[in-house]
Design goal:
- The chain has five helices and no strands.
- Helix 2 runs antiparallel to helix 3.
- The protein starts with a helix and ends in a 5-residue tail after the last helix.
């Protein structure tokens, strides 16, 4: 009886509507970041090809290619993580968990999602702090003189999106309870 009354509270309080909106926001937010990372991969491909061509034909590399490639890769990775999580596309090694009951697997999922959520909160916070220090210290890259805080804050944004996906996973566990999700 307690379970039904708590389910009624969730449905009647508008909490379910809030969760659906949160899911849509998180999904669209991570998709936008993923699309940006796709464009960055394309630009990185063009930059690398142009650098190889310039080295081969003119015997002169494009200045800052190595530096820009590293910065772009960091942004690409952070921008892609949330979308991959929303689509459940991460690789899983589930040799042990496949032998467990569904209930145990759901609880393990909740525990790991909670741990990862906490770690991602800390990661996002530390990235933000690092970006703020970089902004205050006016840190720039070596070859191109690019402002480091721009890339650090972009990584922070990607980390924040990834954090939201784990928060959503935790919410799903409590909303759906014993249902398959």
């Amino acid at each position: 009886m307690h379970k039904n009354s708590s389910q009624n509270v969730i449905e009647s309080s508008g909490f379910k509507l809030w969760i659906e909106r949160f899911e849509k926001f998180t999904f669209h937010f991570t998709k936008i970041l993923s699309s940006v990372s796709s464009v960055l991969i394309f630009l990185l491909m063009i930059l690398t090809a142009a650098d190889v061509f310039s080295r081969s034909v003119f015997n002169s590399p494009i200045t800052g290619t190595y530096e820009l490639s590293g910065l772009m890769l960091a942004v690409i990775i952070f921008f892609s993580l949330g979308s991959v999580q929303m689509e459940n596309a991460h690789l899983e090694i589930d040799v042990l968990t496949n032998k467990m009951s569904k209930v145990v697997r759901k609880w393990i999922s909740l525990i790991t999602s909670t741990i990862l959520f906490i770690l991602l909160i800390l990661t996002t916070w530390q990235l933000y702090e690092y970006g703020a220090r970089s902004l205050t210290g006016n840190q720039t890259t070596g070859d191109l003189g690019l402002k480091m805080y721009i890339f650090i804050f972009m990584a922070t944004l990607g980390s924040f999106a990834f954090t939201l996906t784990y928060f959503f996973e935790i919410l799903k566990f409590f909303i759906k309870g014993r249902e398959k999700y």
